[in-house]
Amino acid sequence: MNDTTPSPPTAPGKFDPKAAKQISDWAHDAKLLCCRVDPTGKYVVAGAIDYTIQRWEIATGNKTPLVGHENWVRMLGFSPDGSTLYSGAYDGRMIAWDITAQSPKPQRTIQTHQGWLRGLAVSHDGHRIATCGNDMLVKIWSTADGKLIHEMQGHPYLPYCVQFVPGSCDLVSGDIMGLVIQWSAEGGTKVREFDAREIASHVGDRAPFGGIVNMTFSPDKKRLTVTGLHKCSNAPAGNRRAVAMSFDWASGEKLPKQECNQKEIDATMWRAVYHPSGTMIGVIEKEIGFWEGGNIDTVHLAATPEHIFDCDLHPNQVDLYTAHFDGHVRCLRCGTI
Amino acid sequence: MTLEQYKPCGTLDHGIGRRQFMGEFLTGLGAVAGTSLFSHPLGATEIAQKNKSVVVIYLNGGLSQFESWDPKSDLETGGPFKSIPTTVPGIRISELLPYTAKQMHHMALIRSISTDLDDHGLANNIVRSGRTTRSATEYPELGAVVAKNLERDDFPLPGHIRTMVGGSGGRTNNAAYLGPRYASVSVGAEKGGIVNTQLPDGMTVTADNRRHDWRRFVNNRYRAKVQSTEIDAYLQCFEQALRLMEKRELFDIAHESKAIQEAYGASEFGKQLLLARRLVEQEVPFVEISHDGWDFHHNNFEFHYHYVADFDRPFAHFVDDLHQRGLLERTLVIVMTEFGRTPKINAGYGRDHYPNAWSIAMAGCGIQHGAVIGKTDAKGIEVTDRKVDHRHLFHTYLQAVGIDSSGEFEIGGRKFPIADPAYGPIEELLA
């Protein structure tokens, strides 16, 4: 399978985390749960708890609402060419939007899951979308016609997130108790499992806590990194530490966990992304952490004004957009252009 | 000081009660000083029916009213869960309660509770006692008051029982001036029910009876010389403990059929509910089940997703089972908690303590089924209609099972109002 991700529209900037500074701050009036930058670098979009998606034009800061969901908008993903936005929400629906339209309207709405849709990922060739939800299922959909291709059962607990394997049709899904399953996207069959139970916790016999909230692959495709929390001492009070846990993709062996030891923060690492240089960027509460070369601790922490629930890197490779609890999308320039 | 020299002063601060003693018997734990027995039961005419029971399901930590009885779907404060219809037209509750929704015709909701304490311990105290304690006086909890009023003299079981998971034992001095006879006795819902109630290896029934005969003989001889309420309490305690041993199978849910056990579910909560049903069948006046851990300052929605599911199906089955067996007509079920949760969602997607506007649910006897008392505003921030507090609720619980809450206890020559005399029941809720 060819990776059709387009080249960055502008030459990459010089990445320097320690020079990170905020360059933009755009506000919405509802809390934001997720954000993505389109692959052409023109827009940043964010999902909100007022059921809308907000689109900001990066050049101007102009904001446009996308209305169609009927519950919190939890996940976003772009087609590789940046023309289509796919959104997933707690209404169990996935909606496809022509993001280039002046006022985007739902192009296709699919009831993907019974209950919440929790995870969504677009394949690297743009032909497929994976979702997971409260019905305990992982599903693969065709972007061409919206039809269901595969429906996979196998997670004993709620699956939280999905991700396509780079350069492959395969898929990984992670659940609330720390199980990662690799699926063959061609046959929808289980290929292997990864045990990340260390980043899951449990409250009595009633409620799991933590689990895999996000997954990503390193740029060299050698590491699968899952993020979440560990060292939970009081779950209902939120006492826990953020963590990223990686596996050697070829062997499946666990690699040293990445934490934030230079500052004690009660946090979940809601997302980590890799810079092409190999530096991992993770959001931990109000901070953005940078881990170089698989080091276990951060080389730098950049503070922001509010809790962060998602982030995405602009194609220029230095601008990091973050979605915040206060309804703002902020951009942190991590270097120079 | 010898026992012969000891003359109780008759104050409320001395003495050891039989319930307390029995708690030690059951657990082997050390003693905690209780209060002595000076109370006189109310006249029979003041009690409408003696065979009624109250079951409190205590959701410890603070259930969110938004994620249960008073959903505010599609609003900023409402969270991501929708409301669903129930068997009572016009009443909607959280989608997290699909099974309970099918029992709403046996239930009533109070959506307009406003109290002023947001500390767990203090709030717990006021909702259980129906009083706001501003002096040194301690008030008996609902369980003690119900047991005092509904327990029959010949009743072989404790009148105030708390179920617990993983064995038995432990007690709390929650009867205040009513004395330890009405304090709660904790029993387990696991196999065997009550620990330490089997005769030790090598002890035959005949030998056990002989030693009890000897104990009674010695006690009676001593009792003839010394007047002591403490001695009475010990004697009562021994005898009730023996009766409890004879009834130990009541506390063993393994005696229920597999189908019934499966219907209540394998969870700790389901097992406790099944035990509660067995105790209600025996006309135990008051049973409390605790479902702990509802204090979700963080991750409120994920936790409620799991916790309410753990509650919903067993609870709904419990109500239905009581109804099918004809027990709901004489049983009041209260889903109690100490306060609600904030309309404001905090940065950890949690909700904090909120006593200003919250809800409880009730089912069973003495109440108008399908009633909803009070309202909150659109966002659930303030009570807008029929504001009530823990004192109104306390009166209402008692009246629903036929106890005149305007009455008094006469204890040691002093009179104590059963419930706060400045308040009364929610009349329109009573059947």
In total, the number of domains of chain A comes to 1
Spatial strand arrangement across the major sheet of chain B: 7-6-8-2-9-12-5-13
Cα distance, first to last residue of chain B?
56 Å
Bin the strand percentage of chain A. Answer: over 45%
**Number of helices in the DSSP assignment of chain B:** 10
Count of runs of 4 or more consecutive helical residues of chain A: 0
Arithmetic mean of pLDDT of chain B: 85
CATH topology of chain B: Alkaline Phosphatase, subunit A
So, CATH architecture of chain A? 7 Propeller
Count of DSSP strands of chain A: 32
Assign a percent range to the helix content of chain A: under 10%
Characterise the protein shown here.
The complex is a heterodimer of chains A (337) and B (431). Chain A is built from no helices and 32 strands. Chain A has 337 residues and is an all-beta fold. Chain A has one domain: Methylamine Dehydrogenase, Chain H, CATH 2.130.10. In chain A, the strands form nine sheets. A four-stranded antiparallel sheet of chain A has the order 2-31-30-29, with no helix packed on it. Chain A has a four-stranded antiparallel sheet with strand order 3-4-5-6, with no helix packed on it. Chain A has a four-stranded antiparallel sheet with strand order 7-8-9-10, with no helix packed on it. With 431 residues, chain B is α/β, with parallel strands linked by helices. Chain B has one domain (51-165, 177-193, 252-429): Alkaline Phosphatase, subunit A (3-Layer(aba) Sandwich). The longest helix of chain B has 25 residues, at 300-324. The N and C termini of chain B lie far apart (56 Å).
